[in-house]
Amino acid sequence: MEDISDMHPDFKSRLIDLAELLPGLGWIGLPNGDFLYHSKALVALTGMPTEEQVRRDENGDFNWKATVEAEEYERLSSAWLTAVRTERDLEVTHRIRAVDGTFRWLRSQARPQRDDNGKVIYWLGISIDIHEAMTAMEESLAKESRLAKLIDAVPSPLWAAAANGEPTHINRALAEQTGIAIDDLANADKSVLSQAIAKAIHPDDAENVNAALQHSFLTGTPFKLKYRQLRADGRYGWISGQANALRDADGIIVQWYGVCQDIDEEVLAHEALREREARVRLAVDALPGLVWMCNPEGEPTYYNRRLENWSGVGPRDILSSRKTLLSTAIRMIIHPDDQTAVERSMRASFISGEPWIMRFRQRRADGVWRWMEGRMEALRAKTGEITQWYGLELDIDEELRGQESLRLAQEKLARAAQYAAMAELSASIAHEVSQPLASVVASADAGRRWMEMSPPNLERARMSAESVLRDANIASDVVKRVRALFQNRAYERHPEDLNKIVVAVCDILNEELTAAGVAVEQDLFPDLPVVVVDGVHIQQVLVNLFRNAVEAMSEIASHSKSITVRTLSTSDGVTVEVEDTGPGIADVDRIFNPFFTTKADGMGMGLSICRSVLYSHNGRLWAENTGGGAKISFTLRSGDSEDPRRAEGER
Ligand code: ADP
Known about the structure:
Strand 11 and strand 12 form a beta hairpin. The chain is rod-shaped. With 651 residues, it is an alpha+beta fold. Strands 2-1-5-4-3 form a 5-stranded antiparallel sheet, sandwiched between helices. It folds into 5 domains: 126 residues, PAS domain (Beta-Lactamase); 127 residues, PAS domain (Beta-Lactamase), CATH 3.30.450; 128 residues, PAS domain (Beta-Lactamase, 2-Layer Sandwich), CATH 3.30.450.20; 90 residues; 157 residues, Histidine kinase-like ATPase, C-terminal domain (Heat Shock Protein 90). It is built from 18 helices and 22 strands. The site of adenosine-5'-diphosphate has 20 residues, from helix 16 and helix 17.
């Protein structure tokens, strides 16, 4: 049946009824591709012509051509004609123009109907209006593509995944970062997520990343992890990955959004820093000294293993206290007599920023007190602000004991030598003077007898008086000679740096000064001219002046006890001043006299011997009150000043 004319009228009217009954816009097609009938509803919707047996026109076009757009017509008519030719079901979604000029989406389906021989006799077709559903879908598609564009425009590497975790989008920044686009993950046999992880995540991190993501997808909790991710250049870089779920009004997850922040540089820098720190710590632990660090506030932040082993006190012991860490550490390891001075001077450094150096006793792990020398310096930032304090202490016990016994031996020797010299002197004076004195006595006695004669023998008396005069002069000469002898005894004189002698004296007396709570300030003139002196004697002079100062300050409050030792370069030599903060000197004119003392157990010989020592060096020693204490000073001729031995020899 190619033609309507071949069709029985009853059959035809039944077909038309059927087309009208169909739940949609029904139509009947013919085996040759023409149409038998378009339902009234279809005609009403489109306004297409109503004819019986709608034949194609001379161009082969259907009469509904005007109801669709040109390209839509090509698609639709060719779909229909293909179905007719192949006798297969038609199924096509298309738009038609309604009478009011608007377009509507239709879904058209048709199936060939056959006779008993299998020959197609007509096509039963139906078009369903799916406009509402289509526009809703279009809208959501448009929205999605707008969102995709937005995600693409964001310069951070982002990805989106469906509620089940399957990635749906990789934005441009992420594709550039990894060199992987979403289309590269289109292997239908595997999930997109597993491909993404296999391709982009470092093999050592893949399992962790997968587990964390699966946990988030399952529970809806945010994902956050640091891992290594492939970069476009083929290397792996550190990433801080995060993802959050997007939920609808009912709280149901509709989408996941994730960001892959590049933190490679930070991680590498941090790693390098940690490595450097570990290396420094290793070096610090290997240092042959006891090392610690304090923060700018003066609280200990670190001490090396050597210090811990040496003292037997670990960080836990110190941290368990409620006092400041510094006080606790000091109380635990420093000798009770030194604790206050150590803490006070350390705190003074923390405030002033000045380096700290001090000697004190510290308990070793075996309970033995050892003399230590501690030093501390501040590390400053470019701005000058202190960022850290570094401390180092060395066990100087042996060295100090050696020095101390040497000093004691020297002191004993010097004292013995002085006593011997004095005994010798008195003996020789006695010996040399006794003879002229005996003559004086004899001559005076004779003179008295000549005067008592009657008449007195004045001539003889005058001669006796002359003898007295001569012998007295002899005695005086003896005394002068003995003094000269004493002054010119052989000295061991060498060119010396007085600054060095001052520092050595401070070191020798350090323990004594610390125990007495006296702070010493050294104000030393740099490049001091050299002096030719007996170093041991000058050292003893200084020791004497320091001891006098300490004794003078014994009664005053400990925080204000201090000695300033100063060296100065003068026109013809060097001056040394020892200034204290004591009560000052009661009788400046008499203190250099032998046996002058204001102390219950004093000898009154110290300053007098000091003055003799200075005289024998062609120097001077004097004292003055400063208002804030006493100042004893001495001068010595510098460098090429004459060597008294040589000078004596030439005289
Ligand atoms: P000694 O100390 O044995 O008394 P010195 O000759 O050393 O003998 O001192 C004599 C006196 O000088 C002391 O007794 C003291 O009165 C006084 N003197 C010395 N140095 C000072 C000082 N720095 N401050 C105050 N008085 C001092």
